[in-house]
Write the structure tokens for this entry.
Amino acid sequence: MKQGIEAILDELPSFERRIDELTEILLTNLVMVSEIPAPTFHERRRVDFLLERFNEYQLQNCSTDEAGNALGILPGEDPERNILVVAHMDTAFSDLVDHTALIQPGFVGGIGVGDNSLGVAAVATLPLILEKLDIRLNSNLVLMGSSRSLGRGDIEGIRFFLNNKDISVSSGICVEGVKLGRLSYGSIGMLRGEIQYRVPEEYDWTRFGAGGAIVNINEIINRMLEIPVPRRPRTTIVLNSIDAGASFNTIPTQASLQFEVRSDSGELVQDIANQIGDISAEVSSQTGAEVEFNVLSRRRPGGIKFSHPLADHAREILKRLDMNPRITPSTSELSAFIDKGIPAVTIGVSDGENVNEENERVEIGPISQGVAQLVGLILALDRGCCDE
Amino acid sequence: MSNATTNGIDTWLKKNTFHHSQFRDLKGLVEEKEKRGLSISLCIPTLNEESTIGKEVVIFRSELMMRYPLLDEIAVIDSGSEDGTLEVARSFGADTYRSADILPTLEAKKGKGENLWKAIYQLSGDIIVYIDADIKNIHPRFVYGLVAPLIFRDEIQYVKAFYDRPLASSQGVRPSGGGRVTEILIRPLFSLFFPELAAIIQPLSGEYAVRREVLENIPFPIGYGVETSHLLDVYTRWGIEAFAQTDLDQRVHRNQSTRGLGRMAFGIMQTFLSRVQKLGIIPTLPDMSTVLRQFQVHDQEFESIQHEIVEEERPPMITIPEYQEQNAARTGSGSASEGM
């Protein structure tokens, strides 16, 4: 009789079939989560939803914490081992946007369905799925909807939990709605910054360089793009958004630029950030405008190695489910695990498109594969297959 | 209005007005349903609803059949959709019927009321709950909020939905009510002729749960007047105590144009007037036109558009021979119920 990871791999097709019969329940959770607006810092109603589900499944310690995370524990035989499965609850959309979701043959549409309502729905449905698959774990399974993840939230929810928990977390799985086959076990170095350019009201428009905020933020951009970035270690500066100007006949007095610096080297990220800070100060002195440089979030590079059993088995599980693993670095919840030295991976549940657009959608068909992958990983962690 | 009527309305409002959250213990609700030996059918009448029907079916099936077996069947009864309504509903596990295929020996009629009426024949539940298919924010509460009063209270026969979740309110007292047709037409008419019925907050809402014994004994207008006639017929036969209403918070749906509401009001007026005549409240009415005239301007010229709106009615289902035979076969008694 096969044991360890081989036994788990052999069970995956049967898991997938049985999970497929429960897809409707997961879809219902997906729709119900999707229709609850949850802009970052305002996740309270999703917390209520998750806690209601956790209570229905009689999880233990169903609660929320100071950071606004939703938590529940499915108790195992060995209280010393705790596997944390987390999906971030917040979305990139204001609560003023229409959050109606729709179900059509083959897909679910609606804002935030992929990022990350599907991840939350998978976590919400997991206790039922494990029960229906007759799976009893040795480890405690800690289920969590994390708050304050995106943008200015800066994964504050998961960080708060990992900094203040009174249990020892042995490993983690971060669940993202899309995309099935993605696998992250490392984080790159990253810094998210914002430059705010403001022209004072008493500004002298006749002085040198007084072309308005757009011209001057453009000057800052040009200078940023002149910063030399090496190929090794891999490094990029990504301009993410720009906001300036109103209409004709109005000289823009404010502009803001959001950007990311990503690199395999944490030192290089800091070095480039310092250079951008210098550019901001220089442009400020040249133009007489206020230029403010704020760092919104940082990630340190790190993670488990390619050869770590968790990474290895995560790839095997995907292959056994007929998927080619796409290894990508993550800058989301995974970084918090990395900072604490806890082995963890990020996985996707299904395929989807137009993520974070108003016509966002996720495919229904692959969901059972994605959830089977999640169950397989939990079992691999639970049975000690991923211990080094 | 007399003090007695006012007191009666106040008492009824207190006793028979619920909020869906009172019934959120679905496990307890299912236990009570089983204890009482009740079966419950959900009917979703449709006409070109492919964009919303999938979600309704998935949510009701997964929450109220798979997780908590509150519903015994979910049926979509369709008036002849030209889009993929039936295919989508079927693909997610609903029983689907074309209205014209039910009781095919009868002359086919087209209208929402026809679908609701035929559901009595086609579905088997002791309670039938009707939910419109165009609700964008569908949620299990739309069903459990309506059937729960029937499960817990034997004397309640007919439970109507209302929606009372304000987007913002700064006062302790605020107005509550229905849509434009309700507030401009129905409530004034009820206040004039049937003051107790004015306490039904949204008499035209398309969501309600009813006991079979009541449904099979009342006629069904097939068009706009079906909800109004239900209220009048149940009220005159069983009284206000037979009604309850449940607040389901908010309902997001398509808004009708004012012209569309005008056509609705015209159909409802026909039903209302025919009822007050039948009840002898207004013994004689002149012959009334069935044409509603609305107007538009075309190249600076005013022109009328005529809408022929005839509120046809189906008789109580209990009078239909096929239904009597089905009942006889079901009960094995060989004779149909004579009604309540």
The longest helix of chain B spans residues 258-278. The radius of gyration of chain B is 20 Å.
